[in-house]
Design a protein that fits this description.
transport; globular; 207 residues; Cytochrome c4; iron; Cyt_c-like_dom_sf; metal-binding; mainly alpha; 10 helices
């Protein structure tokens, strides 16, 4: 085998480019998340570790994906993949997912039914949350039943602790992503109001 130092300049440049390309490919592969390249069924098993079977999360602070509009899920996964949203769990998980894989995952979860939370709602919190939702015109984007549509996420029956966490993150500008509308809406909303809104939306029932 000829050593690299003994090669002609042309061959040396070619060899270095191949080595560089190999290192780059290795680096790209090492940045891929655990679900990239798997079958949809295998990817769903990865997601279920946090988001629950069929997308109904049981872990505190983790959003349920079931019943979310496909476009809303697609956008969020792309934000994570492109590092427009930074999250210590989801940003690494989304690395390497193709557009087609993201769309297939989003379509699957959009078709799953999301059950309302267990337990009776607090009537005073519900009334306060209903009033705040009207005041901030939440239904104008998220629909009158808060089921979401297009890029607007479903709020009804989402985990209450996750809704609190997400609204605080918007208010404190720590959520990331290109959505500035929610930052403006929640700028002066205090913790008690956020908790009432989250309680109302998590337990929302039409009528």
């Amino acid at each position: 085998m000829r050593c690299l130092a003994c090669a002609t300049p042309g061959r040396r440049a070619l060899a270095l480019s191949l080595v560089g390309g190999g290192l780059l490919a290795t680096e790209v592969r090492s940045q891929e998340g655990p679900a990239a390249g798997l079958s949809l069924e295998e990817q769903l098993q990865v997601c279920a570790g946090c988001h629950g079977e069929d997308g109904s999360a049981v872990e505190s602070g983790v959003p349920s994906l079931a019943g979310q509009p496909a476009l809303a899920l697609t956008n969020q996964l792309i934000y994570f993949r492109e590092r427009l949203r930074r999250n210590e769990v989801m940003t690494p998980q989304a690395q390497g997912l193709s557009d087609e894989e993201i769309q297939a995952l989003a379509a699957h979860y959009a078709e799953q039914a999301l059950e309302p939370p267990e337990g009776e709602p607090d009537e005073a919190m519900m009334e306060r949350g209903r009033e705040l939702a009207r005041q901030h015109r939440c239904a104008s984007c998220h629909r009158t039943d808060f089921s979401g549509h297009e890029q607007m996420p479903r709020l009804a029956h989402q985990r209450e602790d996750y809704l609190v966490q997400a609204m605080r993150a918007y208010r404190e500008r720590t959520r990331g992503g290109p959505d500035t509308t929610m930052v403006d809406i929640l700028r002066n909303v205090d913790d008690a109001e956020i908790e009432a809104l989250a309680h109302f939306l998590a337990h929302y029932e039409r009528g």
